[in-house]
Amino acid sequence: MNENVSRGLHERASRLMPGGVNSPVRAFRAVGGSPIFFQRASGAHLTSADGDTFLDCVGSWGPAILGHADPAVIAAVQRVAVDGLSFGAPTELEVRFAERIAQLYPAIEMMRAVSSGTEACMSALRVARGFTGRDVIVKFEGCYHGHADALLVKAGSGAATFGVPDSAGVSATAAASTLTLPYNNPDALRTLFAARGKDIAAVIVEPVVGNMGCVPPLPGFLELILELCEAYGAVSILDEVMTGCRLAPGGAQQRFGLHPAMTCLGKVVGGGLPLAVYGGRREIMEKVAPLGPVYQAGTLSGNPVAITAGLATLEQLTPDLYEHLETIGARLEEGLCRGLKDAHIPGTVQRVGSMLTLFFVEGPVRCWSDADRCDRKRFAAWHRGMLERGIYWPPSQFEAAFLSRAHTLDDIDRISQASAEVLRSF
Ligand code: HOZ
User: Which atom of ligand 1 is nearest to the CA of 211?
Assistant: First the structure.
C-alpha cells in the first residue's frame, strides 16, 4: 500500500481544516497513521488517491446500501441535475418522496425534509418541546444524534472515539435539560419517569445503536420507552438515521413492530446526497411553521437532486436486497467470530442485519460502560492490518461497519480471511 499522495494531501488539508478533515473520525486519530484520501468508488470498492483499491465496509457511514455509484441512482441524478440544482421552492419530486416515506413508515403521518441527520434530530427535539411545552430531553449514554448542543451530552460516535462525550462550547444551559441514562436499562428508565415523567418532553434513542459500535436493544427495551412516553405525555423519538431503510425498508420500527411518536431518517434516504427527514404524528408535526409556532427552515431542504437520489434508492429496497444483506451479514459475523476464536483473542461480534461491529472485549456489549472496556489499542492494530490487506473498515472501535448489495460472498470471505490473518499475527 502506497500512501504518499494521501499523506501529502493530508498535510495540505491539515493547514486549513481541523485534523485535515471535515468530520473528526475520518482523521484516523483513533487508529493512528494518516487518513486515506479517496478518488472514486464503485460497488463495494473504493479507489484511493494513491491508486490503491479497498474493499469498503464503511459505505459512507451508511448511505451506500446499494453499493457505491449505483447506475440507476447516478442516471437519475444526472437526468434531474440538468433541470437546475436548487430552486428554494417546492417541487413534485418532494411530494413523491414524502408519499413514499409515508408508505414505508406508517408512523410518519407528516414530515419535513432537511439536509443532515443532525438537523433532523435537532428539529425533532425542538418540535417535541414545542408540542409538550416541556424542556427535559432524555438520551442514552453512547447514543449519538448529531452535534446539536443539547445532544452532545455523553454522546457516542466521534465524541466517544476521542473521549470528549461532553463537548466544549456547549453551554451549561443547553446541556442542563438533557438527562442521560444507560442504554438497555429498563429499571433506570422507569425510575427516571417515576421521578421526572411530567417534565420530560422527549426520549430520543437509536433503536439499534450504531454509534458506540453496533448494540442491539434488549427485548422489550424500546417498547418500554414508547409505553412510558405515551403514559406520561412525552414524545418518543426513534433516531433511525442509521437504521432507517437499512434494517428493513421501514427501518428498525418495521423490523421490531414499533410505532413511535416521531422518527428521524437520514443516510440511506438520501442515497448518498445530503438529505434527511424528521416527522411523526400529525398533531405533533402540525406545530411546525407555518402551521404552528415551532420554527425550522432551510434553503437546501428538499433539494431536487438529493430527493431524486433518495427516490431512486428507495425504489430499489426490495425483499431480495434485505435477504442478501442478511446472508452476507451472518456470514461475516460467523467469519469474524471464527477468527477471534482461532486466535484466542477476547472479543465479540454484534450484528443486526447489515450493520455490525467487532468489539475487542468479551461480550455481550449492552451499553456504553460495556463498550468502553474495549481494547482500543488492539482495535487500532487490527484496523491497520485490515487496511494493509485492502479492507477499509471504520477507523474507530465505536462505529458500525455497513455492508451493501454490492458485497459478494467472496468479498465477505476475503474480509474474514484478512481479519483471521491479522488476529493470528497478534
Ligand atoms: N459520525 C459519523 C458516523 N457516526 C461519521 C461521519 C463522517 O465522518 O462522515
Answer: 4
Same domain? 156 vs 104: yes
Of the residues 314, 329, 363, which one is the last residue of a structural domain? 314
Return the pLDDT at 165: 67
Q: Are 34 and 3 in contact (CB under 8 A)?
A: yes
267 CA from centroid of ligand 1 (Å): 10
Task: Please tell me the distance from the alpha carbon of residue 391 to that of residue 376, in angstroms, as a whole number.
Answer: 19
Instruction: Indicate whether 51 pLDDT > 70.
Output: yes
Average model confidence (pLDDT) across the chain: 97
What pLDDT is recorded for position 217?
A: 98
Is 399 within 8 Å of 210 (Cβ atoms)?
yes
pLDDT cut 90: percent of the chain above it: 93
Residue 164 pLDDT exceeds 80 = no
Burial of 47 (0-12, 13-18, 19+ CB in 10 A): middle
Nearest CA to 359 out of 394, 389, 311 is that of: 394
- Supply the pLDDT for residue 160: 80
**Among 52, 56, 70, 239, which one carries the catalytic annotation?**
239
Question: Is ligand 1 within 6 A of the CB of residue 180?
Answer: no
Q: Does 373 score more than 90 pLDDT?
A: yes
Provide the domain count of the chain. 2
Instruction: Report d(CA 118, CA 219) in Å as an integer.
Output: 28
Mutate to test the pocket of ligand 1, among 28, 37, 61 (most ligand atoms within 8 A of CB): 61
* The pTM of the whole model exceeds 0.90: yes
Spatial contact of 109 and 279, defined as CB atoms under 8 Å apart: yes
158 lies in which domain range?
A: 71-314
CATH of residue 415's domain is 3.90.1150.10
Is 94 in the same domain as 218? yes
Instruction: Say how many residues make up the chain.
Output: 426
